[in-house]
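User: Structure tokens for this complex, please. No commentary.
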Amino acid sequence: MRRHHSTTPRTARILGSLLLLAAAGVFTVGATTAPAKATATPLDRVVPAPASVTPGGSPYRITRDTSIRVSGTGEARRVGEYLAGLLRPSTGYPLPVTDKGSGGIQLRLAATTFGAEGYRLDSGRGGVTITASAPAGLFHGVQTLRQLLPAAVEKKSVQPGPWPVTGGTVQDAPRFPYRGAMLDVSRHFFTVDQVKRYIDQLALYKINELHLHLGDDQGWRIAIDSWPRLATYGGSTQVGGGRGGYYTKADYQEIVRYAASRYLEVVPEIDMPGHTNAALASYAELNCDGVAPPLYTGTDVGFSSLCVPKQVTYDFVDDVVRELAELTPGRYLHIGGDEAHSTSHADYVTFMNRVQPIVAKYGKTVIGWHQLTGATPAKGALAQYWGLDDTSAEEKAQVAQAARNGTGLVLSPADRVYLDMKYTADTPLGQDWAGLVEVKRSYDWDPGAYLPGVPASAVRGVEAPLWTETITRSADIEYMAFPRLPGVAELGWSPAATHDWNAYRVRLAAQGPRWDALGMTYYKSPQVPWPTR
Ligand code: ACM
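Assistant:
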């Protein structure tokens, strides 16, 4: 459901921005008591753009004497500890987390009107207070505070500071409830630590869904006790023929736990009935001819299918979905459904009619790639659109019809937000089948108006998938995701009224020094006015 909330009128925002720009030139913090070493970051120089910003009043300055004060549940304290963990290494300050006293940085849980993920940040001489109805809102407010501090705050060694926060108020809440990123761990396997690193980068931009593509032709990546060869054999290799890998249940639970600590929900995907060679290779009985194919380490698509007429197929799906649902506190289970080119249409419909109720039986909501709309999406299901601007009108109309019938949509147009698409013809990694996707193209579209004939209420949000045929290292993930991922995050979070490429590219540019401080790799797009050192 799209959330409605009030935003500052456009003219007021523009005026506010002008005032901030003017202020940035003259604004020195603590000018009477210390040399002016840093100008404070304007309150709206944040990605994603906040819903409303009202600058004014004195700045706050984090010092050796600052405490982090938490109220409410244990979760507020955990967000406080997370913030302290971010700030202590670079500031060198003790930053105790306490429920006593006043002033400093306060994380306050209180009834608000801005939803479970919204927050208000008030900054003034006496302190910074983040108020939210729920811990997720406090966490997102902390990400805003983080971006208001100098980029050096991200470093792991003590930096000189100072640590000013501009005075004023940010009031913020997301446009869409689903703001996702997908990582394909099948084409190449990524370790728990690599996934955690990506989660931390996603959290900085208020992404709240991590979709893991756990099964494909080249590898099965999650231990299933009732079908152990899926992981031990089906997970043994990857694209290019190197050693693959898989998550034990404990590994997977560690990813889910870590993601939850950053307020991301994990959406597991087992792609079916196509994209299943790793499973078919692991168990001969899953094949219609009873013969297991060899493991596959190439990059073709569309050649594999589960055997739709066989009962064992549904016993298999039931076991996999049951075990996966047990590992999944989140609401969704993604069943793929794309590129089933080796499954007849009739078989595809039969398969989806049998499999979707299994997902429901184990208490989860179906997500499928948008080809699911060519069958009958279950009540409450979401379809993930991955077409292009120039996908046929018929295909778009089929998705729109499903949306009018109640299927929610997650938008991942491949020629906009597929993070594996090359930026330019010279990009050393990635693919180009959906086109070349520079930063502006990735950012400059409106999810609310993208597909004709879709009611606005059907659009649940956006997701940026990263397919990994050519991606093998964390540095590769980062190079392809940054700087495009923050733009997708902004499309998901920020009110449409804030959408403005020329303003966005300036805010995005300010992220570069932060990524440098974090030791991240990114593409220095010539479309973005990166600060010169
Ligand atoms: C897809 O890119 N085949 C969903």
